[in-house]
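Morning run. Coffee first, then this:
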Amino acid sequence: MSSEIPPPRTIVVSGGTDGIGRALVRDRLGRGDRVVAIGSTPGKGEALLAEAERSGAAGRLTFLRAELSLIAEVERVVERISATHPRVDALVLGANRVLTRRQETAEGLEFTFALYYLSRYLLGHGLRGALAAAPEPLIVNISAPGLKAGRVHWDDPQLTDNYRTVRAQAQSGRANDLLGVDFAARPSSPARYVLYHPGFTRSPGSWAHLSWPVATSLRLLARVAARSPEEAAGPPSRLIDAPPAEPLTAVDRGRPVDPGLPTFDPGDAARLARETRRLIRATVGTSPLLPDETPNDQAGAEN
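And here it is:
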């Protein structure tokens, strides 16, 4: 029997300096993995690097500062990761931010949709080559499978009319359900796709842009009703060690989610993929992160 020690995994975590993402980064570093943590706040990244240095893991942690709500920034991050880490074993998608008012990015897209959904679409497809180089590649999308609230507003996905915080978050949650369905159906990457809903978790960083009364109420409620980030990071970490066999898995607070629910409709998933491609092309012209076109994409492009 071979006594060779398997090489450490390479894990990429978006939203890696706050909440569940930060807890997962710390956990994987403790297991000896190499980790790339993506975050938007330099100070939080520097604090994470300092902690890694104290624990002897500084050489295995990379912090990439990026505003992932921008397509150009996601492209930059993917290019950097692909150049320095040709193999990525697991991609954990956790970047999100809750806003009480509608905001547009510098590229003209509604912020929540751009960060919570579009960045995840682009990171997953953009890193497909690095993921394909791993023996058991995995994508974990920390979102809200199993919830039925919300829908994709096909007539106004940018929510130019009637923007509300819950409406924006719920739409992106449903979009991520459909993203998982579409990704798992594509032949361009062997990565297993997991949609994971951790439930209410203490994550003050994602509440930072809420009004003071709302943020304070959430913090008080979190003290008695929320899971700790470390507890919520446990299931994704275990999935990294033992990826599921199925192309798509959905988990809601430890319970499997029926993939036959209407929120996972394959027709809607194909439609969203086509609309996403159109949105990206309308925003930046083209992008190297776009996946290869399938017959469904080509058919939609003709309509």
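The chain is about 45% helix and 15% strand. Good start to the day.
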